[in-house]
Structure formats: C-alpha cells, structure tokens
Write a structure and sequence with these properties.
Layout (H helix, E strand, L loop, with lengths): L4 H27 L4 H18 L6 H13 L5 H18 L3 H20 L9 H17 L3 H18 L10 H4 L9 H18 L1
Bound molecules: adenosine-5'-diphosphate and magnesium ion (2 copies).
C-alpha cells in the first residue's frame, strides 16, 4: 500500500527542515532565544516516531493526529502551537470529502486556534503571518475548483511571501518582542517553518 499523503508530507517536511535547520536556528538566535531549530527537530522526531507506530492502514486523519501529538509534547512556544494547528488539520481531514476541502478548513481552523491560544494578530511577526496567507490561498483555490497540487503550490507561495514579510515587522509578542527593532531584517523562524511545511506539501502531492 502506498504511503498516505500525510506521511509523505511529514517525511518531506522533516527532510527539508534538516536542510534548513542551521538557517532557522540562526534566525531564532538573532531575534529570539536560539532554541527554535532544536525544538522543531525534537517535535519532528516525535512526530516521525508516532507515524512509524501507526498501522499501514491508518488514515490521513490518524496520521495527522500522530504528527500533532509529537508537536504537542514538545517544549518551546512553537511545539504546542504547531501541535494545536496540526490537530485541527486532523479533525478537518476526518470530516471533509476531499483533501483540498479538508486542508482549507483545517488550516483556517488551526490558524484560528493558534491565534486564540497565542493572541497573535497579522503583522505581529509570528508563524501566523505565514499561516493566514496560506489559509487564504487554500480557500481561494477551493472556491476556484483548483487541483490539490496547484492549491498547495499557491499556499506555499503565499506562506513564503508571508514569511519573508516578517523581516520587515517588529514583534508585538513572543521572545522577539524583547529585542524590538534589533529583529529588523530577520525573518521570523516560525513563519519560515510554515513556508517549508507547505512547500513539502506541494511536493508530496505532486509525487
Ligand atoms: P520560544 O520563543 O518559547 O523559544 P520557539 O523558539 O520554539 O519558542 O518558537 C518561536 C516561534 O514561535 C516564533 O518564531 C514565532 O513564529 C512563534 N511564536 C512565538 N510566540 C507566538 C505567539 N504568541 N503566537 C504565535 N506564534 C508565536
Ligand atoms: Mg526560541
Ligand atoms: Mg525557548
């Protein structure tokens, strides 16, 4: 049986992260406390172990839940927030007919959950600044009747643009807010990771 989309996606995300780990770590060292890459590495390792433990017949919703649990049990601000985000993706996957409908609903609900928990608005220089444009791109694609691969390409592009824009923002909350203007020109690592996530999704889907 071929690997599910969620498994291929998370495998690809982990592989991309390994290539970008140094860069993401440096971003959090420059404008935060420097542990982001370590936190994300640990979350991805736990997520991979959870996915590995699932039976081959597991559904995508079950796979997303296993991934979410890996993140939820990891420290730092990013672990629990990304865990909640993935949990909404899992819930949506279980209750929608097509992957794109599930993805659009899940990313929107997950981003709302992250905002509820963390209090971040657009422009506060957090992962939310990559999540919101990705959610919009997915909803637009769903409305346009786009194919899943194209929708994920658009989401990856929008998340990447959102992440790059955080370099021009001053943090209102989180650790980067402690350094204020000193973060100018430095991309938010959480937002950069979200862009990587959607890029991996686009690849997993095209495969
Ligand atoms: P910590 O700041 O606890 O060391 P991490 O280094 O694991 O956490 O994660 C930092 C990332 O978390 C930031 O780059 C940012 O994207 C995200 N973040 C921090 N605070 C918030 C918040 N309140 N809401 C949403 N995202 C946040
Ligand atoms: Mg940190
Ligand atoms: Mg920390």
């Amino acid at each position: 049986m071929p690997d599910s989309l969620a498994r291929r996606w998370m495998d690809g995300f982990a592989a991309d992260f390994a290539l970008e780990k140094e860069r993401l770590g440096a971003l959090d060292r420059a404008a935060g406390d420097g542990d982001f890459a370590v936190n994300l590495a640990q979350a991805l390792k736990r997520a991979a172990a959870g996915l590995q433990a699932l039976p081959e017949t597991a559904t995508d919703a079950q796979a997303w839940t296993a991934a979410a649990n890996g993140f939820l049990h990891t420290g730092g601000t990013s672990g629990p927030l990304l865990g909640m985000w993935l949990r909404e993706l899992a819930k949506a996957w279980a209750s929608h007919d097509t992957p794109l409908a599930a993805l659009a609903a899940g990313v929107a609900a997950g981003t709302a959950a992250v905002q509820r928990l963390g209090g971040a608005q657009a422009g506060d220089r957090t992962m939310v600044d990559a999540m919101l444009p990705a959610a919009r791109a997915l909803e637009d694609s769903l409305r346009d009747g786009a194919a899943l691969a194209q929708a994920l390409e658009r989401a990856a592009g929008a998340a990447g643009e959102g992440a790059r824009a955080t370099a021009r923002m001053t943090a209102a909350l989180g650790r980067a807010s402690y350094v204020g203007e000193a973060a100018a020109g430095i991309e938010d690592p959480g937002a950069a990771a979200i862009a990587l996530f959607f890029r991996a999704g686009a690849r997993a889907c095209a495969a």
